Each structure stands twice: as C-alpha cells, then as structure tokens.
Amino acid sequence: MSTIEQTQTTVQVYQVFIKATPEAIWEAITKPEFTKRFFYGAEIDATADRRLVVMGDDVGEDPVFEFDPPRRLVHGWQSKWNEEMAAEEPSRVTWELEPRDDGTTMLTVVHDKLEGAPKTATAVYGAGWMYVLSGLKTLLETGEPLST
Amino acid sequence: MHDDLVFKALADPSRRLLLDRLFERDGRTLTELDAELEMTRFGVMKHLRVLEEAGLVVPRKQGREKLHFLNPVPIRQIHDRWIDKYTERQVSALLDLKNELEETA
After folding, report:
1. Could you give the CA distance from residue A17 to residue A102 in angstroms, rounded to a whole number?
2. How near does any CA of chain A get to the CA of B13, in Å?
3. Are B50 and B15 in contact (CB under 8 A)?
C-alpha cells in the first residue's frame, strides 16, 4: 500500500451523528462535570463571555465569539498545556448542532485559523478530535447518568 | 443503517480516489477536484453526493465557494466497530498459541 503525502491542513472538519438532543450535547460541551469525562480529563466551562479550561495544574481562558445555545458555539483555541503549542497563534473552533428528523443530532466541529499554529494543527488532527467526539457520543448514548 | 452508507460509499474506486485527493489537500471546490480526475463534472458531483450522504465528505460554504472536506469520523467508527474487534481476537489467538507451545516445549 502506498502512503499519501499530506499537506498541512489549516481547516479541519469533523462530523458525527449522536442519538441525543442538541440541548443535551450543548450541556455536555459547556459544563465541566461533563467535559472531564470525554475531553482528555479537561474541565471546561463555557459561557457567552469566555471558555475556561482547567487541565491538571494548567488553566486557560479562550475568548467566546458566538454563544447561541443549543445550536452554535464559536471560541478561540490555544493549547495551554503544552509550552510549544501555547506559544503559537490562537486558532478557532466552531461547534454546530443540528437536530434531524430521526431524533439524532448532527454535530459538526470545525477547527480553523490554524495558519499560525502548525504544531497545534498536527496535534489535534484526526485521532485528537476523534477521541473527544467518540467519547462525547458514547457518554450521551450509553445512558450513563450525566450528573452525580 | 449508517454503516451501510459508508461501506457503499467506500466500495467504489473513484470515490476512494476522491477521498485520497481530499486527504492530500482538504477543503477543495468541485472545479479543483474535477481538474485532477479523469471524470466528467457530472460524475464527480454524483460521487461527492454519495460521499456526503455517508458523512465522509462535509461541504462547507466559504464566501461564494462550496468547499469539500474529508470527515474521518465514520472511517474511525468502522475501524473501532470491525477492525479492532477482529485483530484483537487474532492477536489473542496467537498469544494463546505461543503460550501453549512454550508450555509443551
């Protein structure tokens, strides 16, 4: 099998269908008690003003550009937990939640403006975001109690 | 259900070629994709539609252009659902064999 050379991607798109309401997904991506269960253990608290990310001893704060529950969340991204990546330019993440007739929600995540953050782009590409999205899907679909 | 759409979409060499082109460079217009393939524009559109229905390609409007992006999530899900499961069994079967042979040796 031949391997294919890949050029650096500055826009990354991920899409997944989740058997849950947009409201449930919105809660899961904006509240720390949920995010720590699928977002590499990070506790994330997003409001219309800012997105706080607590990961171990590192605390990061990213600006929130759009906050339209439960449909659209746009925020800045900087990987504060890694020195090299933290020094790069901030990028941007957009979450779009679209309910469908079959009771599922189509979640689209776009990570863009990665021109000034090549190390971040490589780190989050593919498996990075997929781990988060498949964890979120499992959490919401397995019916585990979301609050303790 | 959804797996069927993904397998069907992947069961065509032209569509796999389109995915490989998008993997090389993501976020392309129909015109760009069309220019690289020996296919009619109609054919490219038809294949892109099948890929979009399977969620393997996600179209996004950027200004006046419609860009096509590769979505790796469905392939990952198939990997987790099918490939992981069977390779795990092979590996554990080999380990059992190894243990058995080493015990009798």
Report:
1. 11
2. 15
3. yes
Q: What is the CATH number of domain B1-71?
A: 1.10.10.10
Please tell me whether the interface predicted TM-score (ipTM) of this complex is above 0.90.
no
Taking contacts as CB-CB distances below 8 angstroms, the residues of chain A near B69 are: 11-13
pTM: 0.83
Per DSSP, the residues of A15-39 read EEEESS-HHHHHHHHH-HHHHTTTS
Alpha-carbon span A64 to B40, nearest angstrom: 43
Domain boundaries defined on chain B: 1-71, 73-105
Q: Dump pLDDT digits (tens) for B19-76.
A: 999 999 999 999 999 988 888 999 999 999 999 999 999 999 989 999 999 999 998 8
Judged on CB neighbours under 10 Å (0-12, 13-18, 19+), A61 is middle
Query: Across-strand partners of A60?
Result: A53
Q: How many CB pairs under 8 A join A and B?
A: 48
Beta pairing partners, B60? B67
Q: What percent of chain A has pLDDT over 90?
A: 71
- List of residues 6+ apart from A21 with CB closer than 8 A: A70, A99, A105
Which CATH code, of 3.40.228.10, 3.30.530.20, 3.40.50.300, 3.40.720.10, is assigned to A12-141?
3.30.530.20
| A8 reaches B (C-beta below 8 A) | no
Which of B26, B67, B81 has the most A C-beta neighbours within 10 Å, making it the best mutation to test the interface with A?
Answer: B26
